[in-house]
Automatic annotation (TrEMBL):
Protein name as catalogued: Uncharacterized protein
Pfam family, one: Trypsin_2
SUPFAM superfamilies: Trypsin-like serine proteases (SSF50494)
Source organism superkingdom: Bacteria
Lineage: Bacteria, Bacillati, Actinomycetota, Actinomycetes, Mycobacteriales
Organism: Corynebacterium riegelii
Gene3D superfamilies: Trypsin-like serine proteases (2.40.10.10)
Length: 191
């Protein structure tokens, strides 16, 4: 199944927020960099799925990439959940979903998958994305963690945007969903 607005999660603390995707009744796929300043106060993060609110039970970070899996304290009842797939061929159409720009409802941003990258690093140097990809899209701050979809499957999450001097160049670095993330997701679904 592909992503629908019902699967999109707004993760927020008192001072920041990001986007995620409900990929199982109690598992959210999102970015890792959102949690770095919040590790000591993880319980302060609220996960909003439509009108429902959940707290985080456990956080799984994947060192060397910008992906996290979050388990929720209580499942969200939905029929089906999005699936993970491989990166598409170069120049394939993509859609980036997210709550960027302070949106209360998710936006869908059309784009194109440009190329895989062996590594990408944030300006400050603390976010490393491996494996990474480059997508031409209008992703903005707050879309981080949102799913990048091609051919109906999630293949990456939004990680970094290229915005020198505050000007968005419409080039987004995405964290490709690696096999170790898929393996952990499958293990969490079986528990």
């Amino acid at each position: 199944m592909s992503v629908s607005p019902a699967h999109l999660v707004r993760l927020h603390s008192a001072s920041s927020y990001c986007t995620g995707t409900l990929v199982a009744p109690d598992v959210v796929l999102t970015c890792g960099h959102f949690f770095i300043p919040l590790l000591a106060k993880l319980r302060s993060v609220m996960c909003s799925v439509g009108e429902e609110r959940r707290r985080i039970d456990e956080l799984y970070l994947f060192p060397g990439t910008d992906i996290a899996l979050v388990t929720l304290t209580k499942p969200v009842v939905l029929g089906d959940f999005p699936t993970i797939g491989p990166p598409p061929s170069l120049l394939s159409q993509t859609v980036t979903f997210g709550f960027g720009g302070g949106a209360r409802t998710p936006n869908a941003r059309a784009g194109r998958y440009l190329t895989p990258l062996p590594l990408a690093v944030s300006r400050a140097g603390y976010t490393r994305v491996r494996p990474a990809g480059l997508v031409l899209s209008g992703a903005i701050k707050g879309d981080s963690g949102g799913p990048i979809v091609a051919k109906g499957r999630i293949f990456a999450v939004q990680s970094l945007i290229l915005d020198p001097y505050g000007r968005n160049l419409r080039l987004a670095t995405v964290a490709l969903v690696s096999p170790r993330v898929v393996d952990k997701l499958e293990a969490l679904k079986r528990r």
